[in-house]
Amino acid sequence: MLHFDVFFIRTLFLFMAIEEGFVYLLCISKEEHNMYYASGTYEAFAHPKKPKDVDEKSAYIIGTGLAGLSAAFYLVRDGQMKGEHIHLLEKLDLAGGSCDGRKDLNKGFYMRGGREMDNHFEIMWDMFRDVPSIETPGISVLDEYYWLNKEDPNYSLCRATVNRGQDAHTDKQFKLDKESALALSHLFMTPEKDLEDKKISDVLPESFWNTNFWLYWQTMFAFQKWSSALEMKRYLCRYVHHIDGLPDFSALRFTKYNQYESMILPLVKYLEAHHVQIEYGMDVKNVILETRGNKKIARQIIYVKEGKECSIDLIEKDLVFITNGCCTDTSCYGDQNHAPNLNHVKNGRGESWDLWKNIASQAEHGEYGRPEVFCSDIEATNWMSATVATSNEEIIEKIMNICKRDPRIGKVTTGGIVTIKDSVDHWYMSWTINRQPQFKAQDKNTVLIWLYGLHTDVKGNYVQREMRNCTGQEICQEWLYHIGIEESHIQDLAQNACHTTTCFMPYINAFFQPRKNSDRPKIVVDGAVNFAFIGQFAETPRDTIFTTEYSIRTGMESVYTLLDIDRGVPEVWGSQYDVRELLKASYYAIDKKMLSQVKLSLKEREMLKVLLKRVKGTDIELLLKESGLIE
Questions:
Q1: Closest among 381, 496, 512, 386 to 451, alpha carbons compared
Q2: Are 278 and 265 in contact (CB under 8 A)?
């Protein structure tokens, strides 16, 4: 049973402190020539003045993932820089970085991963409110997304299965024991500096791994027991307002199509309309940084194009935005009949890591980060995904038996991942079906299923081979087994009724490696005059990596800092400081019990009695009632 001190007394003392006038307030005040945070519509709706001398500046952005594209967006919209002065440098022939989705004419559809969005991704929506939809004239991407998720809200009807497709009946329960609840509460309030280099397993008890909370958490966010305790603390604080929606995914929102067509393509079209230059085939190898006194200046970009090494000389008015590190670096693809070729996968190897290492080697005091912290243990940072295409009625019937919805009607289907509990000690698979079609080019009768496995180095329940060594057909067989297809039909259906592509990603969980705050470089390091780091491996306070919001935030903060734009950057949503959200989270964390229904010690009951007497007739009592904790 939950420890009363964890979920109520501490929150109540916080209320009482507020009553006495002591309020904890996170505030980064504006100083001259510095980016600053703000909240509210006053700053959000204002248009900043044109930055000084911006017409004399140029920008070079390395990488066209969400971070790079958003940096270009903010240079255009708020920096009011001429598009002709903005150069996006991309090695591949397609923008989007890790936010991809594509159809190979010979091999089929590929989706390496998906993105789950939140209504309080403040910067993401600040950007997409001004990016026009490419599907519906006259509205923005935000409008399109908002209307879609209002008309077709997301929620799951089956979060996990057992016994080959039977509902595991997690029933929206967290099932936290007393020791686990106490440890989670302590983690929530532990300063980040005390969590540096610690694993989750260092701060949570053994009993925690058997709770529904960990099932939901691990499979939704891809955390492992050895992942960073610091990152888990950030996630707990960042999304405490969504504790009630964690078990059934009602907290989430999704795009209409895959992430490339729904997010990347409209953003690229916006930038092209503003004459931003996107230069493909540009393989950047290094950025030469010079330290002169207290100033750090980017002096040269070295790149390879068409096999020839070239360079771009820079002056102080040339701004450089560096995407350092990439979670999908060295992705290895397989198809229906071929396993991915892993021969070239080695710890620390990858073009994005090589670039970051070249830059980091120029630091005097480690100020450009430590890439080796994140890319040196592939066995700890990999997982594998697959995309299954099928129109087979037998398979679709099994899908409908589990998720209670027809995937072909164009609405929410699974409402998020369905975790296969029977596979916990094997591949640990989860699968999902987003709104269909996921691609505009997709046949209307075809359903695309995305699945992934957290354990790629062990054999499956059905397929007796390590996941990473399997063909698409074999991975499909394992999935068909777990959704309840008759065993005598599995091989034939996987071969003739499904088409499966796969992707092994050695660094997909790299950003979850235990770390210090200094292991990721600041977006703009101290003394930097004309360069910034952007993306998932740049450090900005309070926000959470492995999200679209984090990438976009780094793009906005970098532009606002280097151009000294006088408008507040939206702060990370502060639900962790909202006592209403803390009380609501307490109520849902104890599986929607009132305090009178929780087993308490004699001492705890006496404390409860005293505290409730003190708050009787106050707003605190009303809030406790509204949260469900008392009648």
A1: 386
A2: no
Average pLDDT, stretch 108-128? 89
Helix (H, G, I), strand (E, B) or coil at 498: strand
Contact 95, 266 (CB under 8 A): no
Separation CA 398–CA 21 (nearest Å): 58
Told to judge if 216 belongs to the known catalytic residues of this protein, a careful annotator would answer no
Flag whether pLDDT at 227 surpasses 80. Answer: yes
Angstrom distance (rounded) from CA 46 to CA 568: 9
Cα maximum dimension of the chain: 77
- Model confidence at 104: pLDDT above 90: no
Is residue 482 a contact partner of residue 475, using CB atoms and an 8 Å limit? no
For 159-200, the pLDDT digits (tens) are: 999 999 999 999 999 999 989 999 999 999 999 999 999 999
User: What is the dihedral sign for C-alpha 209, 215, 217, 219?
Assistant: positive
Strand order in the sheet with 332-334: 166-167, 160-162, 418-420, 429-432, 447-453, 383-390, 498-505, 332-334
Strands 531-534 and 318-323, sheet pairing: parallel
This model's pTM is above 0.90 = yes
Q: Which pair of tokens denotes residue 17?
A: 């402190």
Whether 66 contacts 323, CB under 8 Å: no
pLDDT of residue 508: 97
CA dist 21 and 17 (Å) reads: 6
DSSP character string of 320-389: EEEE---TTTT-EEEBTTB----TT--TT-SHHHHHHHHHHTT-SSSTT--THHHHS-HHHH-EEEEEEE
Is the confidence at residue 10, as pLDDT, over 60? no
d(Cα 33, Cα 619) in Å, to the nearest integer?
42
Instruction: Check residue 586 and give its pLDDT.
Output: 94
Cα 288 from Cα 300, distance rounded (Å): 5
Query: Out of 37, 90, 110, 116, which one is annotated catalytic?
Result: 116
> In Å, how far are 281, 284, 324, 473, 512 from 354, measured between CA atoms?
17, 10, 9, 34, 19
Cα distance between residue 100 and residue 117, in whole Å = 16
On the question of pLDDT at 307 being above 60, the answer is yes
For residue 5, give every residue at least 6 positions away whose Cβ sits within 8 Å of its Cβ, in sequence order, or none.
182, 604
The residue annotated as part of the active site, out of 155, 235, 280, 333, is: 235
The conformational region for residue 197 under phi > 0 = left, psi -120 to 50 = alpha, else beta, is left
Write the single-letter amino acid at 294.
Answer: N
- 8-12, 211-215, 430-434, 566-570 — which is least confidently predicted? 8-12
Banded pLDDT at 29 (limits 50, 70, 90) = very low
Catalytic annotation on 235? yes
3-state helix, strand, coil in the chain (%, to 5): 40, 20, 45
Dist CA 285 CA 355 (whole Å): 5
Which residue, chain included where needed, has tokens 């940072």?
A: 381
Confidence of residue 224 (pLDDT cuts 50, 70, 90): very high
The residue count for the chain: 631
Give the N- to C-terminal CA distance of the chain in Å, as an integer.
20
Q: Is the pLDDT of residue 22 over 90?
A: no
Tokens 């830059």 label which residue?
Answer: 359
pLDDT beyond 70 at 551: yes
